[in-house]
Design goal:
The structure holds 2 protein chains of 2 kinds. By secondary structure, chain A is α+β, with helices and mostly antiparallel strands. Helices cover 52% and strands 14% of the residues of chain A. Chain A is built from 32 helices and 21 strands. Chain B is of the alpha+beta class. Chain B has one domain: Arc Repressor Mutant, subunit A (Orthogonal Bundle), CATH 1.10.10.10. Chain B is built from 4 helices and 3 strands, in the order αβααββα. Chain B has helices spanning 13-23, 28-38, 47-59, 83-109; strands spanning 26-27, 63-69, 75-81. In chain B, helix 1 packs across helix 4 (83-109). The longest helix of chain B is centred in the last third of the chain and has 27 residues, at 83-109. Classes of the chains: A alpha+beta, B alpha+beta. The A-B interface holds A 1, 9, 23, 26-28, 30-31, 33-35, 38, 57-59, 62-63, 66-67, 70-71 and B 1, 27-29, 33, 46-48, 51-52, 55-56, 59-60, 67, 74-77.
Chain lengths: 895, 110
């Protein structure tokens, strides 16, 4: 028989099953009737005739079964029947069904949700051609004091040109600028300057127009710009004739030469303008430049590192403070790693750990459902024994209980998928800044495949329970009243207790993990920021170079604006700076020299942040003045070189000399040319400038106008205002907008936010892991407690007769209660011990997620133990109370 | 359900059914009666093997079936040989004859 014909037959058999059954029945009845009629004709009474005919025919059901088997779809029919039967069974016990389905849904849903995040953020390749060949080119030092990207601009562009490992290398640097021109209002945008090789590195071309030429990417070449697709649509209405028009970036008029394709992201989604970097080979300043490269096919990052390491000593010919010995002593070495790592950042360990935690939650869920099934199987033993006695095949009983498990699983997985979908779609709205690559997180084929896999694992994990149980059913003894026996089946009792201990242990691990992260977050919150974020509103004003050409005009503008802000009623104090602390967009870090202090030879010089500030800034931020005075308006001139240093500079650089009156200068003479000394007039407190978990590096604050050659224009041109006020933020912003419009109506007021929100954003990564872990741990603890509760309740029910006997013999209710409670607490304590052991042996995994505490933080472990034992006692309390209230007379009659 | 000694050899039931149906379309009970009658009661086809055989032959499309009304006004399922079944009957008959001859030869030589 050909395959299609066979399938047609199966389909017929399945679809017209009812008709076939009735025809089969009719055909067989006809047979028996005819046989009976034949006997009647031979003179036998009709009853006897029918009896004989029926007897001769044999078991009609047996024949029918044979015929059904013959249709070839028996397996499917039986499965369908089993599923229907299972569904009816489940409907009969809605409490059990709800508990099992919800447990599974939470376990599976959590896994699917976290996997879709892991998949989108960590696993999905970046949206460039052959993205796995893209690497970040940085440097590392042994001490880690030198910023890892220090010599890049020099090295990558000059020294590393002779490499054999890369197809192309590029440098890039991001900042923010005001955009004017076109028909729209001025706006504040993220700009990235790139070397023209970037387009070869990424292998992406503009969708419209062309990339930068060599002529455009050199100092003094024509100014050009490439726009993002979104900016082109929004500012130019998607007009293709935009190529050749001009737009002004920070006051420099640039010709628009290209538009990138829709969806192009580099290096961050917010960047909408790209300009050439225009490196001057004769002025290799600007140390802080990240590099990206495309490896040749087959070259590993390690090989590329070795290749670059051979070229690195060439840098000593370009930078004279670096000698080969300095490089060796500092352990300066190229660091080539996948670009994806940089995009993903610190989220990677968080996500893997979170996945491990929801994995544990799933295990707990499986154990929970398994013990629910065990209890259920236990209560059904009599029914099963009856059916076995009536001739039910053991195999069929097994497939029936498997069908029931499958139904639970399907419902649980379906509901879990709904949970996960809800979480994933809500994530961008609830937490827009929490994760990188948010747009790549979605439920797709890979996620569905993962769901299926997880469900399969779950099926194996708890589907085996009925198998284990089925083995023990001995019909005869069961029917004689096996479940009236006063002792619990030891083996299944022990199995259940082992499951509960495992659950408690896993819940302990979850609690320890989330407790540690919680404590870290607490520590991070209590870290001294160095400033007081409450009650400060901030915004940015950037001045185009075309209309504010001199440092004096820039300073003049900011002072006028500050005067206007200060005159707004409700404003206490206002000041401005180049960049707020904790905003990682840009920071200038350079070596710092001090007059009279000769750095030890062959050692890397100390480094410090270079910041600009106006009078009032420190007061507005709440940064304490330690010594001397803060900046004054009279410091803003070419003759006074007044600067402030932070306390850590005094410690690190000045080595105990008096700070006030000392002379310092940023940058190295060999690199920046001869820069005059500035006079230290005051010492202020350190702030966490780069990130919350890094010790302050130390900073020097300059006035907007400084001595000749100390050019702060590029920082002062775009200033962030910090305003300490009791006014609601929105009201202050509105006032600031009005004042700005009167002063210069063409300028945008950008980045309006509160200082508290800046600090919040800096904590968001830690908050994400804290929330995720806390949810996982709460679910884990809850499920563990429910599991313990269920088992104790069941054990109590099983031992009702025994308890009745004991009470009849004189046991008091309180002694009964204590015995059950003791058992609950004992099981919890064993689980707790196992869990703590596991948590301590897993401590290295938690390390990258923690701040300020050790992975065996005693308060955390203590609190976890307390919570767990309380939960265990609580879970035992209800069954214990129930047992204590038993009426011995009724208990003895208990069936 | 005692096994009757009159039970035909396994595998021959298809041949018996095909041969019986080659004379006239007939229902299941009729087939058993017919076989019993023609073989003078030597062969009795058990219902437990007849109906599965009919199902099998129908699946092979050697026979087909329809519901008809019998002489005494009852609905019954009648089976009928298809052209494919007639061809198969020829082949089955020949192979049966070959088997009989072979077995006979074997019996004679011992």
């Amino acid at each position: 028989m050909r395959g299609t014909k066979r399938i047609a037959m199966w389909l017929r058999a399945l679809l017209s099953r009812r008709r076939m059954e009735s025809e089969l029945d009719e055909e067989m009845r006809f047979h028996v009737d005819m046989e009976a009629a034949k006997h009647s004709r031979q003179g036998i009474s009709s009853d006897e005739a029918r009896r004989r005919a029926t007897l001769a025919f044999g078991s009609m059901e047996h024949h029918k079964e044979a015929m059904r088997e013959g249709r070839g779809v028996r397996g499917i029919e039986r499965a369908a029947f089993d599923l229907r039967f299972g569904f009816r069974q489940l409907r009969k016990t809605p409490g059990f069904t709800l508990a099992a389905v919800l447990t599974l849904a939470l376990g599976i849903g959590g896994n699917v949700a976290v996997f879709s995040v892991v998949n989108g953020v960590l696993l999905r390749p970046l949206a460039y051609p052959e993205p796995d060949r893209l690497v970040t080119i940085a440097h590392r030092t042994r001490g880690g004091d030198l910023p890892a990207r220090l010599p890049n601009a020099t090295a990558a562009d000059v020294v590393y040109q002779a490499n054999h490992s890369f197809e192309a290398m590029a440098l890039y640097s991001s900042w923010q600028a005001s955009l004017t021109g076109g028909d729209a209002a001025p706006e504040w945008v993220d700009v990235t300057s790139v070397t023209r090789s970037l387009f070869d590195v990424l292998r992406v071309r503009p969708a419209l127009g062309r990339a930068f030429t060599a002529d455009e990417d050199r100092r003094g070449g024509p100014h050009t710009v490439i726009l993002s697709h979104a900016l082109w649509r929004q500012r130019f209405g998607g007009d293709p004739a935009v190529i050749g028009r001009t737009i002004s970036v920070d006051g420099t008029t640039c010709e628009i030469i290209g538009v990138m394709p829709a969806g192009f992201v580099f290096p961050a989604p917010a960047v909408s303008v790209w300009v050439p970097m225009r490196i001057d080979p004769n002025d290799l300043g600007g140390f802080n430049t990240p590099g990206i490269g495309r490896l040749r096919a087959g070259v590993t990052p390690e090989q590329a590192e070795r290749d670059l390491a051979q070229l690195l000593p060439g840098i000593t010919k370009l930078v004279d403070f670096l000698t080969e010995k300095t490089l060796r002593d500092a352990g300066l070495a190229p660091d080539v790693h996948p670009y994806l790592d940089d995009v993903v950042g610190g989220v990677r360990p968080v996500l893997w750990t979170l996945w491990a935690m929801v994995g544990l939650v799933l295990l707990i869920a499986c154990v929970n459902v398994a013990s629910l099934l065990l209890v259920r199987a236990e209560t059904r033993r009599r029914e099963v024994a009856l059916r076995v006695a009536l001739g039910a095949e053991r195999g069929h009983l097994l497939t029936q209980s498997l069908a029931e498990s499958a139904l639970l699983l399907i419902m649980g997985a379906g509901l879990g998928l709904v949970f996960a979908w809800g979480a994933v779609t809500a994530l961008p709205r609830l937490a827009p800044d929490l994760l990188p690559r948010l747009a790549d997180i979605r439920i797709d084929a890979a996620v569905l495949a993962c769901t299926t896999l997880v469900a399969a694992v779950v099926a194996v994990a708890f589907g085996l329970v009925p198998v284990a149980q089925n083995r023990t059913a001995a019909p005869a003894s069961m029917l004689r009243g096996g479940d009236r026996s006063s002792t619990v089946d030891r083996r299944s009792g022990r199995l259940r207790q082992t499951l509960v201990v495992a659950q408690v242990a896993m819940a302990t691990v979850l609690l320890v993990g989330s407790g540690l992260v919680l404590r870290s977050f607490q520590k991070l919150r209590s870290v001294s920021l160095g400033f007081r974020p409450d009650g400060v509103v901030t915004f940015r004003i950037a001045l185009p170079g075309s209309r504010y050409a001199t440092s004096e005009s820039v300073a003049q503008f900011h002072y006028s604006m500050l005067d206007r802000i200060r005159s707004v009623p409700g404003v206490e104090v206002a000041g401005a700076t180049g960049e707020l602390p904790l905003t990682p967009t840009f920071s200038q870090i350079d070596p710092l020299r001090m007059e009279g202090v000769v750095p030890p030879p062959n050692a890397l010089p100390p480094i410090a942040e270079m910041r600009v500030a106006t009078p009032g800034y420190f007061e507005a931020m709440g940064i304490p003045l330690v010594e001397g005075r803060t900046l004054e308006r009279s410091d803003t001139d070419r003759q006074t070189g007044a600067v402030l240093v932070t306390q850590s500079i005094v410690r690190k650089v000045m080595q105990g000399r008096p700070a006030i009156g000392a002379h310092v200068a940023h940058g190295l003479e060999s690199v920046t040319g001869e820069r005059p000394w500035s006079d230290v007039v005051g010492v202020v407190g350190d702030v966490r400038g780069l990130s919350l978990d890094q010790e302050p590096m130390g900073a020097v604050y300059y006035a907007m106008v400084n001595r000749q050659k100390v050019n702060m224009d590029w920082l002062a041109r775009s200033m962030v205002y910090a305003v300490r006020t009791k006014l609601p933020p929105a009201q202050l912003i509105a006032s600031a907008r009005r004042e700005l419009a009167q002063l210069d109506p063409t300028l945008p007021l950008a980045e309006t936010r509160t200082l508290a929100s800046v600090v919040d954003a800096a904590r968001s990564g830690m908050r994400f892991s804290m929330i995720g872990f806390a949810i996982a741990a709460a679910i884990g603890l809850f499920m563990g407690a429910i599991g313990l509760y269920g088992v104790l309740l069941y054990v109590t029910a099983q031992r009702t007769r025994e308890i009745g006997v004991r009470m009849a013999l004189g046991a008091t209710p309180s002694s009964v209660r204590t015995s059950i409670l003791r058992r609950g607490v004992l099981v919890s304590a064993i689980g707790l011990a196992a869990g703590l052991t596991a948590a301590v042996s897993l401590r290295m995994l938690a390390k990258p997620l923690l701040y300020g505490i050790t992975p065996t933080d005693p308060p955390t472990l203590g609190a976890v133990s307390l919570v767990l034992l309380c939960a265990g006692a609580l879970a035992a309390w209800l069954p214990a109370r129930r047992a204590a209230r038993l009426d011995p007379v009724r208990a003895l009659r208990w069936d | 359900m005692g096994e009757s000694s009159n039970e035909p050899l396994r595998g021959t039931i298809d041949l018996l059914v095909l041969r019986t149906l080659s004379l006239a379309p007939m229902h299941g009970w009729g087939i058993t009666q017919r076989i019993q009658q023609v073989t003078d009661g030597v062969l009795e086809v058990n219902q437990g093997s007849l109906y599965p055989a009919l199902q099998r032959l129908e699946q092979k499309e050697w026979i087909d079936s329809e519901w008809r009304v019998t002489d005494n006004n009852r609905r019954a399922k009648y089976y009928r040989l298809t052209p494919l079944g007639r061809k198969a009957l020829g082949a089955e008959t020949q192979s049966w004859r070959r088997l009989v001859v072979a077995v006979e030869q074997l019996l004679r030589t011992t």
